Amino acid sequence: MATIEEVQPAIDIVSVRKQFPILERLVKGKPLVYLDNAATTQKPQSVIDALTSYYSGYNANIHRGIHTLAEEATAAFEATRDAVQQFINAATREEIIFTRGTTEGINLVAATWGRQNVGKGDEVIISGMEHHSNIVPWQILCEEKGAILKVIPVNEAGELQMDVFHSLLNSKTKIVAIVHASNALGTINPIKEIVAAAHNAGAVVLVDGAQSTVHMDIDVQNLDCDFFALSAHKLYGPTGVGVLYGKKHILESMPPYMGGGEMIKEVTFEKTTYNDLPYKYEAGTPNIADVIAFKAAMDFMESIGKENIARHEQVLLNYATEELQKINGLKIIGQSKHKTGVISFVIDNIHPQDIGILLDNQGIAVRTGHHCTQPLMSRFCIPGTTRASFAVYSTIDEVNALVAGLHKVVKMLS
Fold this sequence. Notes:
The protein has 15 helices and 17 strands. The chain is α/β, with parallel strands linked by helices. It folds into 2 domains: about 140 residues, Aspartate Aminotransferase, domain 1, CATH 3.90.1150.10; about 250 residues, Aspartate Aminotransferase, domain 2, CATH 3.40.640. The strands form 5 sheets. Strands 4-10-9-8-7-5-6 form a 7-stranded mixed β-sheet, with helices on both faces. The chain has a 4-stranded antiparallel β-sheet with strand order 13-14-17-16, covered by helices on one side. It has a two-stranded antiparallel sheet with strand order 1-2. Helix 3 packs antiparallel against helix 11, helix 4 crosses helix 11 and helix 5 runs parallel beside helix 6.
């Protein structure tokens, strides 16, 4: 096995890890090896401090108050919107809608744009590698409207069959809802090609960016997608916060998602007029503290550099792939040439749950199961996988610990 000095890319990994308090803890008496980053990333001290600072220093509701605390909270909240605009290169800040996460963003589009634009006999295209969050809302819409849900198949390497996708597009296609990077396989899909083809057929495109945004430099204008959804907790930020990006002219044409405070201009018993973007889709008191802390997470990523993070994770992915393939009976599911730092695998005659339990006994946290992608697991004729996923604070030593742990598992259970 390699050492850090032989393989580690040129970032100050010691300095990075010191920013994450949780990495100092022990699990089952062993140093924590956290390799479940595709489920959620750990939080740097700056994010934790931002939460504490809001609650201890200027806790107040936003937008409607004229007192000092309300003005400070509002300014910090809206500063995060500006930061997100820059982070994904949206054209205007009005295109940034705060949600509870990627799931709510997708449901918002299905319930508003979908109900307004999809009718009987129309078609919605998704892929065979979608998270349940990008399957179920479209099933509900299609059942309600009498529309047809079509699926782009996945090949043995875990890649979309793009020739089939192009053949599925036609004048009845209203929307293509597609994952940017698979949470279960790590596969990065050719979004620009998908968007261009869908637009040529007259369809709009929603991109599930929950897994891609933390690993890649996202430019929604360059991708030309119509919607893009992401979650803060995948980006070293708090849970319960997400973003839905939408092209301004499309968002303006859509009906509201929820009714209540903030999303109105004027209410009478006869008629309500709705607020301007982005507040039209932000009814009620938002998750103020976590939105504010999300900016600290983006600042953390920018301080290291997205390119540096991507290069670091790619080195880990390549090294882990090479070492895992040396383990008897281990098969990696998803061998795309273009992947994020995710490796899913099975081991002959050993259930993923048993692997996860035995690794946890060694202080190693991985994810096991179907990863909310049951149709994808069915495509590979497996109940689930063990998934190791990397982040900026992951190290070669942790990969070595995983490999050594799996050798113990195989020796014990084979």
